[in-house]
């Protein structure tokens, strides 16, 4: 899946806001060993490292394009590695803090993934995760409806990405069953206010739309893009447009 750092960063301030909420929940300890699962361009991983004096921090990401930009933020305490979240978890390397900001929604089967991540924590370690609440966000719902229509379903070979994101109750139960001693889990709306409906298309084109645009080719791809834009205009009539983007913030200590 080809990520475009420039497209992703077009809404940098809006994408960064939940990171700071997650960062505020971190329990800072001396000389921590920290990993950022899905570090993207590395800019926020650098800010994470800045908050943790003396910590050794590794950021992993599957995207070579993102990691190329991450090189600018590397230093003696901060290193970046190209690796998927599944590959990293399988190493069973232990950490004081496992951090993941807007990334694990791209990894399937959270019922299995979360316990595997927890197993990589040292005793007394902390898990901190932020991700979009894809099942409740309107653009994600509209996209899911569109790709299930016959012409696009056929062009996609019946492929469709089903969100792995669970309910808050499910995550709380997974934490509890895997030895959590304390947890904070909540959902928050981060309002995206844009002057025109086309900006909402640009917003989702930097994330959830990517795997579909990668698979569609030629005229059907152009039709798909135009139809999605048309539906966005019909759904969000008033300008400026308020998009109530929902995210899940979670931290747990083990």
TrEMBL record:
GO molecular function terms attached to this record: trans-aconitate 2-methyltransferase activity
Q: What GO terms describe the biological role, i.e. biological process, of this protein?
A: methylation
InterPro entries according to UniProt: Methyltranfer_dom, SAM-dependent_MTases_sf, Trans_acon_MeTrfase_C
Q: Which residues form the Methyltransferase domain?
A: 29-150
Keywords attached to this entry: Methyltransferase, Transferase
- Superkingdom of this entry's organism? Bacteria
Q: Which Pfam families match?
A: Methyltransf_31
Protein name, UniProt field: Trans-aconitate 2-methyltransferase
Q: Which organism is it from?
A: Pedobacter nutrimenti
